[in-house]
Specification:
With about 250 residues, the chain is an alpha/beta fold. Helix content is about 40%, strand content about 15%. The protein has eight helices and eight strands, in the order ββααβαβββαβαβααα. Strands 3-4-8-7 form a four-stranded parallel sheet. Helix 3 links the parallel strand 3 and strand 4. Helix 1 packs across helix 8 and helix 2 packs parallel to helix 3. The chain is globular. The chain starts with a strand and ends in a 6-residue tail after the last helix.
Length: about 250
Amino acid sequence: DYLTCTYRGHGQSLAKGLSPRAAMAELLGRTTGCCKGRGGSMHLTDVSRGHLGENAIVGAGLATAAGAAFAAKRLGTGRVALTYFGEGATNQGVVHETLNLAAAWTLPVVFFCENNIYAEMTPIAQEVRVPNMSARAAGNGIPAVEVDGNDVLAVLETVRAAAGRARSGGGPTFIEAHTYRTCGHMVGDPETYRPKDEVAHWRARDPIARFRNVLLERHGFSAADIAAVEKEAAAAIDDAESFAKASPWPEA
């Protein structure tokens, strides 16, 4: 959501999200931020780019996405809503209410569940009796797809297919991306609840490192090409930081 992403080598921009400047300024509470410095890190919003806003209520994004999808269907805009949430959020009542409604009304929405095994510090296996969250979508009559959440291109193609299905009138899709949180839930998290060998296993499957290798081995990128992209990204962040620090604070 934070960066403008271009899949180099294919000549097409895949996503134009919230600008780094607008995001960084919001994080630092400045008037040039996407919410004029009053939203903060948990409420980044930019309606002009189709980003209808984060919120701190677990699972609430599904209802917002369904509302946007309902509007798109009624107005015939051809737009598709996409919302992200964790596996722990699937225990929220609003999630099941929204899945049911989206199925009943054949809404153009993609539900993207990032299953990273832990809801804060609690393993999902201790919370539910279904091994996969996709089963909860099936119970509402929504097609579900499971994907390796650490495979960049697999995720891209899965979302692209789901969006195409929604746009053509096929209704919602539930994507369960199997992934892992490689650091603690919060700053200072002692992580005593996670086995060290489990963490090491998943860190070895880091999606950024894997994608770098895919670009090198299968798509004709050189190490210099990747270094150039990394340099450009770092420059964008440095620029965003300088811009935000130079921006004014909001009025009282």
